[in-house]
Write a structure and sequence with these properties.
Layout: H1 7-16, E1 22-26, H2 28-41, E2 45-49, H3 55-59, H4 67-71, E3 77-87, E4 90-92, E5 95-99, H5 100-106, H6 114-126, E6 133-138, E7 144-148, E8 150-155, E9 177-182, H7 187-198, E10 208-213, E11 215-220, E12 224-228, E13 231-235, E14 239-253, H8 261-275
Parallel strand pairs: 1-2
Antiparallel strand pairs: 3-4, 3-14, 5-8, 5-12, 6-7, 6-11, 8-9, 9-10, 11-14, 12-13
Helix pairs in contact: 1-2, 5-6, 6-7
């Protein structure tokens, strides 16, 4: 890909040329358009996690530190059906954020440090002179929400991490959206939210709500700056979020084979020699000191 190239157009060209599998190396923002094309044509999709956050890849169980293994899925892999989500017809694989989280995506610190992005943006967004976003939506229990400082809609609900841990999705095939909304109405609540967000515990803040649903409709007074799978975007109201259950056939790499029994015996011998104090140099075959796993 080159700057300015359209991922959807490129993927469609590859399908027209006879591609039987589609995949992309990148982050969530690159995954979504190619996954949308793969879903539309009923092709398997390979995810190579080479982005900044890699939420979708991590929740698929892929290792961002082993791109070579992820790429083996092009040749041989296991297919699993996972959900996609849409906002006004545009596919996303991770989430859409409005308000606080959308502003963090636009922060100059976002790609390098999420904590610095929080510190950079929160004072202006929830300070004493800030007003909630003019959003209107309804929860599944019938409660009407009017105004929010943050709204996040995810492709499947997230399980929020504790201190020092990221949020993650235990399932990508639940057939539901995850919805999270935050509102703070005074300086004390804003300060508490800022502190809790720094430690990944924002859900303990007053004015915090979350639920799951198959659809969500959000009204607004005008175009809304948003974060779409970690990329800046502008969405036109009204916003219609829907889930597409099991719309994508994600092809995952086969788990690496176990080492042979012979190698297990050799490595056990190394451990015994180390435990008994024998030098590694006493062995007759020094080339076996390091065993490098070959890609399969």
């Amino acid at each position: 890909m080159r700057p300015g190239d359209d991922l959807c157009e490129r993927a469609e060209d590859l399908v027209a040329g006879g591609a039987g599998v589609l995949g992309v190396a990148g982050g969530d923002g690159s995954m979504a358009p190619v996954a949308a094309v793969a879903s539309r044509h009923g092709l398997p999709f390979v995810c190579v996690p080479a982005g900044t956050r890699n939420h979708f890849a991590l929740d698929l169980g892929l290792d961002p530190n082993d791109l070579a293994h992820a790429m083996t899925a092009f040749r041989r892999g296991v297919e699993v059906r996972v959900d996609l989500a849409e906002v006004n017809g545009q596919v996303f694989v991770n989430n859409v954020s409005l308000g606080i989280y959308a502003a963090m995506v636009r922060s100059r610190h976002y790609r390098r440090s999420k904590v610095r992005a929080v510190m950079d943006e929160l004072p202006d967004l929830i300070g004493p002179d800030s007003a909630p976003l003019p959003l209107r939506f309804r929860a599944p229990d019938g409660a009407e929400h009017s105004g929010a400082h943050a709204l996040l809609v995810s492709n499947n609900p997230y399980r929020l991490g504790g201190l020092g841990h990221n949020a993650w999705r235990p399932r990508l095939d639940s057939g539901s959206l995850g919805v999270l909304t935050i509102r703070v109405d005074d300086g004390r609540a804003a300060a508490r939210l800022a502190l809790l967000e720094l430690f990944g515990r924002g859900h303990l803040s007053p004015g915090y709500s979350r639920w799951s649903a198959a659809t969500l409709t959000v009204d607004a007074d005008g175009p809304m700056p948003a974060g779409l799978d970690g990329e800046p975007a502008t969405l036109e109201p009204r916003l219609r979020f829907v889930t597409r259950p099991e719309a994508l056939a994600a092809r995952l790499p086969v788990a690496p084979r176990r080492s042979s029994a012979r190698r297990l015996v050799e490595e056990s011998g190394h451990l015994v020699r180390a435990a008994t104090g024998r030098s590694m140099r006493d062995r007759a075959t020094p080339e076996l000191i390091t065993v490098k796993r070959q890609p399969r």
